[in-house]
Design goal:
Elements: H1 2-10, H2 14-24, H3 35-48, H4 52-65, H5 70-82, H6 86-95, H7 97-100, H8 107-120, H9 124-135, H10 143-158, H11 166-174, H12 184-197, H13 200-213, H14 219-239, H15 243-250, H16 264-280, H17 284-297, H18 302-314, H19 318-336
Length: 346
């Protein structure tokens, strides 16, 4: 069941993340060993299909049966990310860290989720601390870990944060995989690192690998053709400062990025890149529209309101931009309160 669940995740089959578990739930109950794990997987599927209240309830129930299930912790963390519950998310992960962060192969990813929340608050030093000590504490070549590392550094770079030599170290780990063309989702994250490091020879290698994969007839051929190759080209254009080209390349793809796997939270880096490209290209109307989408979906996100403020400024609407920044500050202040008792746990 877990193998199928991870396969659905890698293929971007969100409804099957939910429904495959629903098919077997009638055959399980509290008396069957492993029932908590089934609930944890179902919780993640519910979250990925937008059923947030049910997802949180199911994830919490899973943890009542097995408090060390990191996938259930992860599912509830996703709910809080998607709902813009930043303070709750930090409290949730830090208060339960002894259960999910010790001797656990998913720990680095749950640390990534914690860093996302700190990034919302603009706590960049804390994000880099988590990156250095939890997400990327050693130069491993495990693709799952490198994906999270690439995504986090790219998000920081979109905000103008200097990440030092971290790009170079990460790009060096991706370089041996540049010609593999095995999974477009990974290739795109390799592109983040290679572009961030300014390794243009590596960028060409990954692009070539995606071009070859796009000629294939299998699943990765579809992923590379429809999503991976356009994204890679857009990331390269962004890295070269060709922001209008990056925006124009991303716009036709953004509605289909789910087709190359990952979660909503992971794929959001594509939408953030698109919005940042529009802002840097001086495309005020497009930037404002994209920012409006984000604030409508997640109205308590300080980041979304700050992006809105930048878009309004690009339209010459200084007063509206100030109100958007004030709104960002209000949401940030309101959400800092729940985590005061658990700050030290991280």
């Amino acid at each position: 069941m877990q193998t199928a669940h991870i396969g659905d995740f890698a293929l971007g089959q969100s409804t099957l993340l939910r429904d495959r578990m629903a098919q077997v739930l009638p055959h399980w109950n509290d008396d069957v060993p492993g029932y908590g794990y089934v609930l944890g997987m179902h919780a993640f599927g519910l979250e990925e299909t937008g059923l947030y209240a049910r997802a949180e309830d199911t994830g919490r129930r899973a943890l009542e049966l097995n408090r060390r299930d990191p996938w259930a912790v992860h599912a509830v963390a996703h709910v809080m990310e998607m709902q813009g519950r930043i303070g709750d998310g930090i409290e949730w992960l830090t208060s339960r860290a002894p259960d999910w962060s010790i001797d656990n192969g998913l720990a680095f990813h749950n640390w990534w989720h914690l860093a996302l929340h700190h990034l919302e608050f603009g706590e960049h030093a804390r994000v880099l601390e988590i990156y250095d000590t939890r997400i990327r504490p050693a130069p491993t070549s495990v693709a799952l870990e490198m994906v999270d590392a690439s995504a986090m550094l790219w998000r920081l770079s979109l905000r103008g944060v200097d990440v030092g030599t971290r790009w170079q170290a990460l790009a060096a780990a991706w370089a041996p995989l540049a010609d593999d063309g095995y999974y477009a989702f990974n290739d795109v994250h390799a592109m983040f690192a290679l572009v961030g490091a300014g390794d243009w020879a590596g960028v060409e290698r990954v692009t070539g690998s995606l071009q070859r994969a796009a000629q294939e007839t299998g699943t990765n051929g579809m992923m590379s053709r429809d999503v991976g190759l356009p994204l890679a080209r857009a990331i390269a254009a962004f890295g070269r400062g060709q922001y209008a080209e990056a925006m124009n390349t991303l716009l036709p793809v953004r509605a289909s990025v789910h087709r190359f796997g990952g979660s909503h939270a992971q794929r959001d880096v594509v939408q953030l890149t698109l919005l940042e490209a529009a802002l840097r290209a001086g495309k005020a109307a497009q930037a404002r529209a994209l920012a409006a989408e984000r604030t409508d979906l997640k109205r308590t996100s300080p980041l979304n309101w700050r992006l809105t403020a930048r878009a309004l400024e690009s339209q010459g609407r200084a007063d509206d931009a100030k109100r958007a920044r004030d709104t960002a500050d209000l949401h940030a202040a309101a959400q800092r309160t729940p985590r005061t008792a658990t700050r030290e746990a991280a």
